[in-house]
Design brief:
The chain is α/β, with parallel strands linked by helices and about 350 residues long. It is built from 14 helices and twelve strands. Helix 1 packs across helix 3, helix 5 packs parallel to helix 7 and helix 9 packs across helix 10.
């Protein structure tokens, strides 16, 4: 790991890994819950003792350089919206934490400002490895992040940036050696799935969106979901890492669900098809990578056609394994937290 490599925990031969959590919302809490639940397995199967030396969000922070167990962190926060100590700047928490790993779990900035990228770059310069579920650093600034990781001899893992905890990057890295990703088709956004399905049952777009906002499924500002930005973030992240695309989400053409008439959805159903908001990324003849998020009528036997509600999936086009289809059902916060957990294990195994 970093400067603390080889440090022994108080529990005999266990290797202690200290985390600095920037962002302490639902994913961070679920991640701490999972770490607490897996404490014995982490020790017995992996020889790891995971402690949290800092946690922070805009509303509060927690600094404990000696480290607290994830369960102790959850107990200290309780049902409060933020950790109990006064809020500290992320830079201060990073420098004071003595952590081995930054876990960057802040919310994607609405104005696409590179705040989370700054957290990642600073952690790398401090000698920390990085785990993140934040799409921003990978979708908008991957070249900078990758260069900083290489320059500082550190690693960055980001499985949860694309499809919750569903293995995409680790699948390509570990299970498909020497395979090149040459393109992909995907259903990347569950909220748009739910709206399309509701409209297919006769609801208007406005009514379906309002109902999902009331249920907490859709955000108060739904633009990221219904205008295709969320899918574009994910497409750029996957294309940048796995295809060397060097693009940003702004380069990906988007069609908004607001522009899709209910009649179009009904006609697709009547023809035995399903309309989905499909992300497509391809590499052109001259090597340039292009992407688009478009409403598409899919034949009922297309693997993406069945992905409604909370289901997500991608059809990966590779050179050596042809087409590989991966999907998840009920991709929720615990699955995102699991993606971060799996990244932590991969990070520790590779050090």
């Amino acid at each position: 790991m970093s400067a603390a490599d080889g440090r022994k925990g108080r529990a005999g031969k266990l290797r202690t890994v200290r985390l600095c959590l920037i962002g302490f919302g639902s994913v961070a809490r679920a991640f701490c819950t999972l770490l607490a639940q897996q404490e014995r397995i982490l020790a017995d199967a992996h020889g790891l003792r995971v402690l949290v030396s800092a946690a922070g969000t805009r509303g509060g922070s927690l600094l404990a350089p000696d480290g607290l167990t994830p369960a102790a962190v959850l107990a200290a926060v309780g049902g409060a919206p933020a950790p109990p100590q006064a809020a500290r700047p992320a830079s201060e928490l990073l420098r004071a934490s003595g952590a081995d790993v930054l876990v960057e779990l802040t919310v994607m900035e609405h104005d696409f400002a590179p705040v989370s990228t700054g957290h990642v770059l600073e952690a790398l310069e401090l000698g920390m490895d990085v785990l993140t579920a934040n799409k921003g650093p990978i979708a908008w600034n991957w070249d900078r992040v990758a260069a900083a990781a290489k320059a500082n001899g550190r690693r960055v893992r980001f499985e949860s940036t694309v499809m919750d905890g569903l293995p995409v990057f680790s699948l390509l890295e570990l299970a498909l050696p020497d395979c090149r990703l040459i393109g992909f088709e995907a259903v990347f956004n569950a909220t748009s799935n739910s709206i399309v399905d509701a409209m297919g049952q006769g609801e208007t777009f406005a009514d379906a969106l309002a109902r999902m906002q009331a249920a907490g499924v859709a955000e108060a500002d739904p633009a990221n979901d219904v205008d295709g930005w969320d899918a574009a973030f994910k497409a750029a992240a996957l294309a940048n890492v796995a295809m060397g695309a060097g693009i940003t989400p702004a380069a990906i053409a988007r069609e908004s669900l607001r522009e899709v008439a209910p009649e179009r959805i009904a006609q697709a159903r009547a023809a035995g098809k399903r309309l989905r908001l499909v992300t497509t990324v391809t590499r052109g003849a001259h090597g340039a990578v292009r992407g688009a998020v478009r409403a598409a009528e899919l034949d009922i036997d297309h693997p993406l056609a069945a992905l409604g509600g909370d289901s997500l999936g991608a059809l990966l086009h590779t050179d050596l394994m042809a087409d590989v289809f991966i999907a998840e059902r009920n991709g929720l916060v615990p699955q995102t937290a699991y993606g971060v957990y799996s990244d932590l294990l991969h990070l520790c195994r590779g050090s």
